[in-house]
Amino acid sequence: MKQNRYSSIVGHASKRLALAVIATLSGLTLSQPAHASNITIASPVNGTTVSTSVWVRAHNVGCGGLAPVVFGYSIDNNGTLHRGVTKYDIDATKVPFGAGTHTIHFKAWTTNGICPVASTTFRVGGSSSGTAAATSSIPSNAIGSANLDGKTWAYERDAAMPGSARGSTVYPASTPSWDTARKFYMTYSRRGGVRWHQSFAKDASATHFVYDTYVYITNPSQVANVEMDMNQVKGDGATVIYGVQCSTYSKTWEYTYVRSGTHWRSSNIPCNPRTWKANTWHHIQIATHRNTNGDVTYDWVNFDGGHHVFYNAKAFSAEKLGWPRGLLLVNFQLDGYNTGSGSITAFVHNFKVFRW
Fold it and tell me: 218-234, pLDDT tens digit by residue?
């Protein structure tokens, strides 16, 4: 594998029984025992500082092997339940909070009762602009892309990788949790890789981005790298490369920089895709921002509710590729681990990009 090469896009221009025992919406106490749950909190992130207007986002797939029938949240010690937009999702923008420390409790029920509660504690104070701590959540004024799962994805073997690889993709694909996921499948030899990609909008002026998706891999031991990138063509025609990957080689979240070509650099945040739990949905968010010159700051990664900040991860990451001005493009790439041959099956769900 060529560890110093950025391989996602350079050289290619085109890329799913109602609950009977509900007494009231405040309290919602059930006597049944709790089960292992799967609630992932997207915003606000635990331990961060946010503005007074908070975006409350979470996803839920039920517990104990059962789908949810109710999903909502309560704030601090107030028992009032605010229901999600669906039994799977909470997506409430501009929720007002006073200054100080607050806790949001996310609560889900199946026909067997309540699932374990997931909570996030955060501090409210000041504007959401200008400080690293405050930018650790997605602001409520961010522009969110449509759900990209069902859009058209193109793909090809990554020519910068050794070996060979062939890929495919299908939507919708059935998984244990969702029937609206997108499936990515590849066979490879000698650590080959496949890149999937799509252009989703035009915006030359946005400077901050969050790459946000759920990823499910059936056999992580086959995977060397999970690469998740975004690209933007500025008004001057330079393509900014917001490149991040979880690498088994450096065992970190790596990021890209441009210097006589585009290269990878390891970071302070540990990551190894071969240790990810198999057949499990992992919620991943990656935040980056740039300046007018094309210097990219890699801000943070949220992985399954854990918040991890990049340190000293600012680098020039732009080059002239002749792409249309304003183009926004996302990439999802899988690289094989075996020096012989193998195959990888992965799914993504609720794939979005936020920008501001």
Answer: 999 999 999 999 999 99
Are the C-beta atoms of 349 and 217 separated by less than 8 Å? no
Per-residue pLDDT, 250 = 98
User: Judging by DSSP bridges, how do beta strands 341-355 and 208-217 pair with one another?
Assistant: antiparallel
Q: Per the structure block, which two tokens stand in for 303?
A: 């992985």
Burial of 176 from C-beta contacts in 10 A (0-12 / 13-18 / 19+) = exposed
What's the one-letter identity of residue 159? A
For tokens 């020096």, what's the residue?
339
Q: Which ranges of the chain have pLDDT less than 70? A: 1-37, 126-137
DSSP for 50-66 reads E-SEEEEEEEEEEETTB
Write the pLDDT tens digit of every residue in 158-186: 998 989 999 999 999 988 777 789 999 99
Q: Looking at the whole model, is its pTM more than 0.90?
A: no
Chain-centre distance of CA 109, in angstroms? 25
- Which pLDDT score, from 0 to 100, does residue 12 have? 39
Q: What is the pLDDT of residue 47?
A: 82
Strands 154-157 and 341-355: unpaired
Between the CA atoms of 74, 59, 102 and 64, what dihedral angle is there, to the nearest 10 degrees?
70
Instruction: State residue 136's pLDDT score.
Output: 56
Q: Rounded distance, CA 30 to CA 67, Å?
A: 17
Distances (CA, A) of 306 to 282, 297, 300, 313, 338: 11, 20, 10, 19, 29
Say if residues 171 and 149 touch (Cβ distance below 8 Å).
yes
Measure the CA–CA gap between 353 and 356, rounded to whole angstroms.
10
Question: Residue type for 171, please?
Answer: Y
Query: Which of these, 105, 45, 110, lies nearest to 283 by C-alpha position?
Result: 45
